[in-house]
Structure formats: C-alpha cells, structure tokens
Write a structure and sequence with these properties.
By secondary structure, this protein is of the alpha+beta class. It has ten helices and seven strands. A five-stranded antiparallel sheet has the order 2-1-7-6-5, with helices on both faces. The protein has a two-stranded antiparallel sheet with strand order 3-4.
Length: 314
C-alpha cells in the first residue's frame, strides 16, 4: 500500500517528495510514508499557533473579544485579506485567529506570533513532543526585518507525524476543554482553501461534500501541504506534506496539487470506509450516481448548444 500511493502520484505526474501519515481517531496508524521527515511548514504552522492561542484564551491570558488595532507596519504580503485593508482596522482576537486559518492570512498570523512570542511557541512545541516542528520567525517579512536564522535561509518546518499527533490530541480533547476544542475544529472546518484532502471528496446533488473536513492547507513554491480531520464513516486524521513540485503556480489547477489529490483520495476512500474496500454504502452510492447522471446530462445539453460559451454576454 505504501508504494501504491507514491506510484499513483508519479503516474499523475508528481515528481517531488511526499510525507504522509493517516491515523484513525483512536490513534491507530493506518498509513505512513516518510512521516518523520521534516518539510517547510508553509501555512500548516498555523495549526499549532491556533491551538496554543486557544490555550492562552482558556487560561484567561488572551481575551478573544479584545480588539487589536492594525497598523500599516503590520501588513505583510502573501495569502489573506488584512494587508489589502486600511490601517486602523480593529478585529477581535477571535477574528484574527479565524482569518489566520480560513483564508491563511499572514498578517493575522504575525499578530498571533507577536502576541505569543516565537520562543514561547517553540517551548510549547517541545513540551508537546512535536520535536520536528519549529517556528523560526514571522511570515513574509522583508529581509531587513528578518531574524538571523531567516537571513541564513532557515524556515519554519514540521513533519506529517507531528501534524497528525497534534490533530489527534486536539480532537481527543487532551489539548483544550470542550468549548475551545469545538471552537478550534469549527474554525478549521471553515477553511476556504481545500486543495488536496477535500478536492476529490464526493459531493451531493447540491455540491456539498458528503463528509465534513476540518483542515489547513499550506503552499510555497514547489511545496503543497494539507492536514486535517476527515469525517468519513471511519474518521481519519491526515497530514500530507510535499516539496519539490514542478508547477510553481498558485492556480487552482496547479498540476502538483491535482496529482496529489488524485492519488490521495482512493487511499482515503479505502481507509475511511466501513464497507468493502473502495465502495460506498448504498445511500451514498445512490447520491453519487445521481450526481454523476445529472452532470452528464448537463454536459450533454451544453454540448448540443450552439454559439459562444457565454451566449448571454455581449
């Protein structure tokens, strides 16, 4: 099974390196490939930041309703929306944490890092046993604001093993009390960038995924990650990390992302189903078949139309 996933990814055109770990909710490891290898963390570093910040809130050291004043100097480029908005905006800390995850906002992330402190974050990671994960510094800083390690070329890093362990403990309730556990998972479930794990999850007739997903993606040039909890009939905790991809674009149809998603879903379908391997239960199968028939019918009607792709436009 281990080589089958990688072979499938290669067949779809992915030439880079992959770290993959999949566990059941009880911690049983169902699949591992280079799980302890470290990769640039990209935005998956925001998962431990979210959990640590909510621990601070739980302890009364962070008021989630307190407002933070955003200065122009706080703005950094890359993913997110805050850097596109004017200075003086005052989101709450809950808004900041939400934006950090659901649109992977780098400006929000740096506010969180500033509040927690990089040394405190790394001490927290060490205490948790996540020794392959380390925060080197804030994100997307200009070189003159980078720390010494960043100027040497060091970057935040993590492993599939650490990411899955963190998520297992989050879902299991050992990191946060129930209310803050629910809040963390709610934020992760509202993730808007579902590049790999969620891309091939079957959908119903209304386009809604058949299985809930709480996840966080991450991307740099040639680096594509996705970590999360997929609530298939047998729920799965998943971390897929990759580097060495050959498609540098951040386009939704990035070839590396498509190759990884196409290789991953059959494995998730197999490990996540309670019935025979590769099958769905009857109600789900009927829903998928109906959706496929509807899509085929629409495609057929579209093919019979004449004229331009957008006949209602001038």
């Amino acid at each position: 099974m281990t080589t089958a996933f990688l072979d499938c990814a290669r067949q779809h055109g992915f030439a880079g390196e992959v770290g993959l770990r999949i566990c059941a909710l009880d911690g049983t490891e169902l699949y591992a490939l280079n799980a302890t290898r470290t990769f640039p963390s990209a935005s998956t570093i925001k998962v431990p930041l979210l959990v640590q910040a909510l621990q601070e809130a739980q302890a009364g050291r962070l008021d989630l309703s307190e407002r933070v004043t955003l200065d122009a100097s706080d703005h950094v480029p890359g993913s997110g929306v805050l850097h596109e908005l004017g200075p003086g905006l005052q989101p709450t800390w809950l808004d900041v944490l939400t934006l950090m995850v659901i649109v992977s906002d780098n400006t929000a992330t740096n506010l969180v890092i500033e509040h927690l402190g990089a040394e405190a974050v790394n001490a927290w990671l060490e205490r948790g046993g996540w020794s392959s994960t380390r925060l080197i510094g804030k994100l997307q800083l200009p070189r003159e604001q980078q720390n010494e390690a960043q100027r040497r070329g060091e970057c935040n890093h993590t492993s599939a093993h650490d990411q899955v362990d963190l998520l297992l403990r989050l879902v299991g309730g050992s990191l946060l009390e129930p209310a803050h556990t629910d809040l963390a998972l709610s934020i992760l479930q509202r993730q808007q960038l579902r590049d790999i794990i969620g891309r091939r999850v079957p959908r119903d007739l209304h386009g809604e995924p058949l299985y809930r997903l709480a996840s966080k993606s991450g991307e740099l040039t040639g680096v594509h990650h996705d970590v999360g909890v997929l609530y298939t009939p047998r729920p799965l905790v998943i971390a897929l990390l990759s580097q060495g991809g050959q498609d540098p674009s951040e386009h939704p149809e990035n070839r590396d992302i498509l190759a990884l998603a196409d290789a991953l879903w059959p494995l998730l379908a197999e490990l996540g189903q309670t019935g025979p391997v590769g099958t769905f239960n009857r109600p789900v199968r009927r829903t998928i078949e109906a959706a496929e028939r509807l899509a085929a019918d629409r495609k057929g009607r579209a093919g019979r139309r004449s004229g331009a792709c957008y006949p209602d436009r001038d």
